[in-house]
Design goal:
2 helices; four-stranded antiparallel β-sheet; Tetrahydropterin Synthase, Chain A; about 25% helix; binds zinc ion
Length: about 120
């Protein structure tokens, strides 16, 4: 099994509904997003997935969220834009965008500060 990781950043505002504490108020984060993909085989030139394709997929997903108020965007208008749900959203959308490659997303981690992160994995 081969494993690759890329990182990017998401600057956005959110607030957590029904949260009893500071995060119920509007505030922002500069999330660091890590995407780990896995592939059991390499392509004909020895790559699990072209880093360029993976970076473009992540950049495309983050581009729809960057510098936005997440609570106004689907699906975060219905589910809380927590780091957990953001990680899951990025997982599903990056996985869809790279579905033509031999790699699949294994784990997405959203760092909401230097000391705290949430990850989403499947399987
Ligand atoms: Zn927050």
């Amino acid at each position: 099994m081969f494993e690759l990781k890329v990182e990017d950043y998401l600057a956005a505002a959110h607030n957590l509904r029904e949260y009893q504490g500071e995060c119920e108020a509007l505030h922002g984060h500069n999330w660091k997003i890590e995407v780990v993909v896995r592939a059991s085989e390499l392509n004909s030139i020895g790559l699990a997935i072209d880093f360029k394709e993976l970076k473009e997929a992540l950049g495309g997903v983050l581009g729809g969220l960057d510098h936005k108020y997440l609570n106004e965007l689907a699906p975060f208008d219905e589910i809380n834009p927590s780091s957990e749900n953001i990680a899951k959203y990025i997982f599903e959308n990056v996985n869809r965008l790279i579905s033509g490659s031999g790699a699949t997303v294994y784990k997405v981690t959203a760092w909401e500060s230097e000391k705290a992160c949430a990850s989403y994995l499947e399987g």
